Amino acid sequence: MPDLGAQSFTIRSPLDRPAKDFAAEVPGTHAFVGASREDRITLEAGYRDLAGNETLVGQIRKGIVDEWELTLTPDAASTTVRGRDLMDRLLARPIAKIYPRSPVREVLDTIAGPGAGGGNLRTLTVEQAPAGHYMASQIAADVLAKVNESLPDDQQLTLSWATRDYEIRSDYSATGRPLDVLRDLAEPWNQVPPFAIDVMLVGLTVVVRNRVPVPPADHVIALPDARIKSVTITKRRPVFYGQVVLSGMSTQIEGDLEGEGIVVRAARACSRASSSRRGSTSRGTR
To answer: What residue spans define the domains of the chain?
Structure first.
């Protein structure tokens, strides 16, 4: 179904809520009269230069419309549509899959999860992946593939794993909402709020990355081209963190000789440390 065209819109995108909310104004009555569960809308903003050339930056692609509101005046009619972006698909559909590292062990065939609409329970069949060595990004990509099974071709989601990757050192159970599984996979690198892990939707790409206190600009527009009359920039004093506790595995998983010392690789560790004791060196690395 073609996208609804919007002449103005507002987007709310707080960092503490994964899905973006939007309200967009669509000219005419066609969006209201032909309202459908399949309605989608793409929201873009930008500027038009003096030569009439448009530069647009996408904000939401294939947004889901939940509400249609018709406004009539003596000389015009418009429809306001409200909804959310496709991140909602990572919140609404639970999954259940086991990724075994060791030889396959017996697991439950089903688990109980929340039913559609809440209140009731429904039974989810637990899938079993082949035993192997899985990276966190591999499981994340597989989770999105499960979500994409219920989405049309023009709404397929892709993954950008932009934080550290690591190997899962034990059996992993990907159970629950896909968004919660992605957050759990990235949890080892979820540190203090200025560098916390954010899972967000950019276009049709699910991005998993550490928060950047001063992020680079996605798009740069010169003030004369944008014809902006004034700009306000606000700075706020950040919170000071005097002590940060980093944790990891304390047992040796695998090792080999390197010079005169032993290299110990610890999964899900968040730092690299060195210490000397009796002429040997022990280094903890991811």
So the answer is: 8-84, 89-210, 255-285
